[in-house]
Amino acid sequence: MTPDVVRVKPFPDFCLEADFATGERRWFDMKPYLSYPAFAPLAEDGLFMKAHVVHGAVAWNEEIDLSPDTLYLRGKRLNNQQGLRKNHTQ
Question: Minimal CA–CA distance to 54: which of 14, 18, 11?
Protein backbone atom coordinates (compact mmCIF):
# COMPACT_ATOMS: atom_id res chain seq x y z
CA MET A 1 0.00 0.00 0.00
CA THR A 2 1.40 3.37 -0.97
CA PRO A 3 1.40 6.31 1.43
CA ASP A 4 -1.01 9.22 1.22
CA VAL A 5 -0.10 12.55 -0.31
CA VAL A 6 0.04 15.24 2.38
CA ARG A 7 1.09 18.23 0.24
CA VAL A 8 1.14 19.00 -3.46
CA LYS A 9 2.61 21.90 -5.39
CA PRO A 10 1.64 22.35 -9.05
CA PHE A 11 3.90 24.07 -11.59
CA PRO A 12 2.88 25.85 -14.81
CA ASP A 13 4.66 23.23 -16.93
CA PHE A 14 2.11 20.61 -15.77
CA CYS A 15 4.41 19.01 -13.22
CA LEU A 16 3.67 18.28 -9.58
CA GLU A 17 5.78 18.02 -6.48
CA ALA A 18 4.09 15.73 -3.96
CA ASP A 19 5.05 15.10 -0.35
CA PHE A 20 3.93 11.80 1.15
CA ALA A 21 3.03 10.81 4.69
CA THR A 22 6.31 8.89 4.93
CA GLY A 23 8.30 12.09 4.40
CA GLU A 24 9.21 11.12 0.83
CA ARG A 25 8.91 13.61 -2.00
CA ARG A 26 8.17 12.80 -5.66
CA TRP A 27 8.24 14.79 -8.90
CA PHE A 28 5.52 13.87 -11.37
CA ASP A 29 5.09 15.04 -14.97
CA MET A 30 1.39 15.21 -15.91
CA LYS A 31 1.94 16.21 -19.55
CA PRO A 32 1.59 12.64 -20.93
CA TYR A 33 -1.74 12.28 -19.10
CA LEU A 34 -3.31 15.40 -20.58
CA SER A 35 -4.14 13.49 -23.76
CA TYR A 36 -6.54 11.26 -21.79
CA PRO A 37 -10.12 12.57 -21.77
CA ALA A 38 -10.32 12.41 -17.97
CA PHE A 39 -7.36 14.77 -17.58
CA ALA A 40 -7.73 16.95 -20.71
CA PRO A 41 -9.60 19.74 -18.85
CA LEU A 42 -6.46 20.35 -16.76
CA ALA A 43 -4.83 21.98 -19.79
CA GLU A 44 -7.53 24.67 -19.92
CA ASP A 45 -8.27 27.82 -17.91
CA GLY A 46 -5.53 27.37 -15.31
CA LEU A 47 -7.27 24.40 -13.68
CA PHE A 48 -4.01 22.48 -13.28
CA MET A 49 -2.66 25.11 -10.88
CA LYS A 50 -5.58 24.44 -8.52
CA ALA A 51 -4.22 21.04 -7.47
CA HIS A 52 -4.82 20.26 -3.81
CA VAL A 53 -4.90 17.25 -1.49
CA VAL A 54 -8.18 15.49 -0.68
CA HIS A 55 -8.12 12.35 1.46
CA GLY A 56 -4.53 11.51 0.50
CA ALA A 57 -4.99 11.98 -3.26
CA VAL A 58 -4.38 14.97 -5.53
CA ALA A 59 -7.56 16.58 -6.80
CA TRP A 60 -8.45 19.53 -8.98
CA ASN A 61 -12.21 19.50 -8.64
CA GLU A 62 -14.94 17.00 -7.76
CA GLU A 63 -14.46 15.16 -11.07
CA ILE A 64 -10.68 15.05 -11.56
CA ASP A 65 -8.21 13.42 -9.21
CA LEU A 66 -5.00 11.40 -9.29
CA SER A 67 -4.34 8.48 -6.98
CA PRO A 68 -1.40 8.50 -4.61
CA ASP A 69 -0.42 5.13 -6.12
CA THR A 70 0.22 6.70 -9.52
CA LEU A 71 2.16 9.61 -8.06
CA TYR A 72 4.25 7.38 -5.83
CA LEU A 73 4.99 4.55 -8.23
CA ARG A 74 5.54 6.63 -11.37
CA GLY A 75 6.97 9.78 -9.81
CA LYS A 76 10.65 10.58 -9.66
CA ARG A 77 11.98 10.41 -6.11
CA LEU A 78 13.49 13.61 -4.74
CA ASN A 79 15.46 13.85 -1.56
CA ASN A 80 14.35 16.50 0.92
CA GLN A 81 17.46 18.62 0.35
CA GLN A 82 16.95 18.95 -3.41
CA GLY A 83 15.46 22.18 -4.63
CA LEU A 84 12.58 21.37 -6.93
CA ARG A 85 13.46 23.68 -9.81
CA LYS A 86 17.13 22.78 -9.49
CA ASN A 87 16.31 19.09 -9.80
CA HIS A 88 13.72 19.55 -12.53
CA THR A 89 16.01 21.48 -14.82
CA GLN A 90 18.95 19.07 -14.53
Answer: 18
pTM of the model: 0.86
Please, what are the domains in the chain? 5-88 (3.30.2020.10)
Per-residue pLDDT of the chain (90 residues; tens, 9 = 90+): 889 999 999 999 999 999 999 999 999 999 999 999 999 999 999 999 999 999 999 999 999 999 999 999 999 999 865 555 444 544
For residues 28 and 74, the answer to whether their CB atoms sit within 8 Å is: yes
Least Cα distance to 28 among 37, 55, 39 occurs for: 39
